[in-house]
């Protein structure tokens, strides 16, 4: 017997259509979103990842520029030779000294000090100081190297000033070459840290510092308890960037000292250049470059972990 149906009678309940999943989107949407960045990814793979992979291969060979018909795979021989080489160990030590003095202590500290002082300085003073510091930064590395060479050489500006003050003079590029090139790198690179910290300090609400000043906190106390904690992420980012930049400095040191005298200012980039292009040992020099890349990566990992653990 059939059930009657009509306008006033309820229809037999059937299976309801499946509700649409909230936020559902077509499967091709992620592909379409990734499509605009595909050319950039291809260029990075071609011009960045590709050369790095090829250099990693060369580091395990005995490739030379001259006097060799074909190269052969030598495994870790280049790396063992590097760690057994006293000149390599000296270059590693000088690279660390150069990085700590010129980047961690010099550029970072001086950049923060200049940024803090310029917050309270008058507009003409800020304009003058900013112009001088940024001019040193935008100068080509070779030009900056020649200027600092003229400043530190025996007949240079520094000894002329010391002689005018009746103070003892010396040949700074011979007696203290690593300190001379470190100071040169501080002079050239402080502007970057100053700009980073100036932007960070401008983001601090004035109400917080004014309240601390009303409560009787002095300048150093405000800097230590308020300013530095509030800009700690900028400090970590700046330290990472200037450390990586300092590890790769070549032209400045090459123009001023060429790594001498006697290897007293020969950092890893200069040691790598000498082994690869002056002694024609491309495989060995590339192994040193790969070790330098590993050192930079370790610094980056440390800084990134410090930034990640911040609240």
Describe this structure in words.
- The protein contains 15 helices and no strands.
- The chain has 311 residues and is an all-alpha fold.
- Helix 14 packs antiparallel against helix 15.
- About 2% of the residues have low confidence.
Give the structure's gist in a few sentences:
The chain is mainly alpha-helical.
Keyphrases for this structure?
single chain, 311 residues, mainly alpha, 0% strand, globular
Secondary-structure map with pairings?
Blueprint: H1 29-34, H2 38-58, H3 77-84, H4 86-120, H5 123-138, H6 141-152, H7 157-164, H8 172-175, H9 177-202, H10 206-214, H11 219-230, H12 232-247, H13 251-256, H14 268-278, H15 282-308
Helix pairs in contact: 3-15, 4-9, 4-12, 5-9, 6-9, 9-12, 10-11, 12-15, 14-15
Could you state the order of secondary-structure elements as H and E? HHHHHHHHHHHHHHH
Radius of gyration: 30 Å
Instruction: Report low-confidence residues grouped into runs of 5 or more.
Output: 6-11
Note the total helix count. 15
Name the overall outline.
Answer: globular
The whole-number mean of residue pLDDT values reads 84
Q: Helical content, roughly?
A: 55-70%
What portion of residues belong to β-strands? under 5%
Distance between the termini: 73 Å
The largest β sheet comes out as: none
**SS class:** mainly alpha
